[in-house]
Amino acid sequence: MFARSAALRAAKQLPGVVARRNYADMAMAFTFASQNQVFYDKADVKQVDVPSFSGNFGILPAHVPSLAVLKPGVVTVYEQSGSSKKIFVSSGIVTINEDSSVQVLAEEAVDVADLDLKAARDVLSQSQSAVSAAASEEAKAEAMIAVEVAEELVKAAEA
Amino acid sequence: MFNRAAVLVCQNGKCFQQQERGMATLKAISMRLKSVKNIQKITQSMKMVSAAKYARAERELKPVRPYGQGASAFYDKIEAAPAPDKPKELIIAMSSDRGLCGGIHSAVCRVIKSQISESANPENVAVVCVGDKSRAQLQRLFSDNILFQVSEVGRKAATFEDAALVASTIINSGYDFGTGKIIYNRFKTVVSYITTEQPVFTADSISRAEKLAVYDSLDADVIQSYMEYSLASLLFYAMKEGACSEQSARMTAMDSATKNAGEMIDKLTLTFNRTRQAVITGELIEIISGAAAL
User: Which residues of B touch A107 (CB under 8 A)?
Assistant: First the structure.
C-alpha cells in the first residue's frame, strides 16, 4: 500500500506526468453581474443553467471553455448549500474559461421573485402592438426583439 | 496699496485734501468683498452638489467594477494581441462636457497627445471623443484624427444604453482598426484617480489568438456578438469610473476654491477695516484742523 502511494507521489513529481483532475477539485469562480447589480462575484457554486442562442446548457466546474450569447430567459444558479436561485436575464454574454471561472454578464437581470405577472403581460401586449405599428425593417426587428423578451418575461413570471 | 488715504494737493498756496482717493478705494474694496463672498457661496453649493453626485456615482460604481473585470477577463485569458497587419489604431477618450473639476480632462488628453505624437504613423490613429472637453482640447492639434464626438455626457448618470450607442457607432463607422484602447480616469480614492488604458480588441484579433482553440463551439457570429457586447461593457465601465473620478475631483476643486475664497475674504475684510479707519481718521483731522483755522 505504501509502495503504491509512494509510487503515485513519485509519479506526480515527475515532469510530464499530468496529475489527474478530479471534478470536485476545481471550484467554479462564478461572476454574475448586470449593469447595476452584482449577484455573484467569484462565488463558488455547484451548477449554473444558462439560456443561450446555441441552446440551454448547464455549466459545472471544469466545463469545456466556451463563449455563448445569452437569450432572454432564466438563469438558474445551484449553490453549494443546495438552494437554487432563478434570475431573469434579457441578454448578455457567457464566458467559460480554462481555469473553471465563469462570467455571466447580463444587460438587464432581475430576480424572478421580483417579477410582476400583470406588468409582464402589459409589456407583452405593448410590444406586440409595436410590431404591427412598426414602420421600417429596423423598427420591426427591434419590436420583435422586445416581443421575444416579453414572452420570456411572462413565462418566467408565471413559473 | 490702500495705505494712501488722503493726498495733499497744494495749489495757489492753498492746500486741498483729496478725499476721493480714500472713499474710492473703500467702495472698490467693498465691491470686491461682495463679489468674492458671492463666489464663495457658489463654489460651496457646487461642492455640495458634486458631493451628492459623487456619493451616487460611487454607489453605482460598486456593481460595475466586477462587470468591467468580467468583460476584460476573457481577453486576458486568451492573451489577445493586436493584429500585426492592421496598423490603424483607435483611441477612445473618456471625458465629459463640464469643467471646474481639476485636471480630469487634461489628464486624459495629455496621454492621448503624447501617444499620437510618439506614434510612428500619426495619421493611422483615430480618436473618439466622449465629452466636449476632450474634443476642445484635442481639436487644436489633432482635428484630423477625430473620428466622431459624443456630447451630452456627464449631466445625467451613464447607462448601458449610452455605452451601447457609442459601441454601435464605433462598429458601424467601419473604421477597421487593429488595436483599440480606452483612456479613462480610474477612481482610486476621493482625492486621487489614475489615468489608465483599457485595451479593446476586434473580432479579428480574437479569432487569431492562439489560446482561442481551447474554447469550444465558436463560430464567427458568436465571436462578433461577444466582441460587440464586451466593447459596450468596457465603455460602460470606463464611463462609470470616469464619472466617479470627475465628481470627486470637482468636489475637491470646489472645496479648495471655497477655502481660497474664504482666505481672500479675511484679507479683504482686514484691509477694508483699516481703510475705513484711515478714512475716518482723515475726516477727523480735517474737522479739527478746520475748526482750529476758524
Answer: 160, 229
